[in-house]
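Bug: token stream looks shifted between consecutive jobs. Job 1:
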Amino acid sequence: MHLRFQKFTLKHYPAYKTWFQNKALIKALGDADEEWLNHVITQTDGVEYSVLLKEELGGVVGIQFPPPGTDLGYAITNIAVSPARNDAGIGSAILSELPKALQLTNEQHLIAYVDPPNLPAQAFFAKNEWQLVESD
């Protein structure tokens, strides 16, 4: 599966917005409204990637950059896969390819914060052999 990571732009929004007819996605991520769009287009402390399969939007992943001078990881703020492509392995492929897309060094790492009630997200990260660390 060849994934192409590209900064999320206005041209990706119409396709992405159609995904939010899925109640489970809205429950997990909230709505992708105009406020969200303005944030991801203008943010400087992170990046929102469109993940393309050929020219089709197959996924979206958000990253918060670590604060300068810290050893905190690059934080995955959201990850979503086109509902038409659920269970096709795209989410796992995004996790696998993300370090390369971000050009992370061996000293840098990814982390993800998952709300305790979000059991599908917890299962997703566990399936991809991410370590669960509970915090306050």
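Job 2, same session, no restart:
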Amino acid sequence: MSKYTFAGLAESTGEMFPAIPAGRYPVRISSVEPKDSKNGNPMLVIRGTVIAPSDHENTSLTNWLLLPNPEKQEEEEVKRRIAELKNICIAADIDVTDDEFEPSDLHGCELTFVVDREEKEGEKPRNNVKSVLPLQV
């Protein structure tokens, strides 16, 4: 059995994946997982890895995409969330003429994540994916 050393690695407090500067980053989607939010709303957890050569190559970014929930949301909110999901599919060149969407279709797609850097007092900085665009290198 192989032995592994943890020497030189940051504590598991998020420091291994520090927040990167706000900007546009080309990513390859590595996983798409349907989940429920803390409030019980459906969402997709879309994880991507920065692919362009830069200081941030191989950095992991996560888009926590809340999905429509007609039982808990107003009609306008439901429409906005459907439009957001549709725009991600269009950016990934996924056919949106059908009424159905398979989250795994996003796996391996290359897109641009527009991220900001959020810094709150007493907390470590973190990134938020603000929008998803077609790949722009």
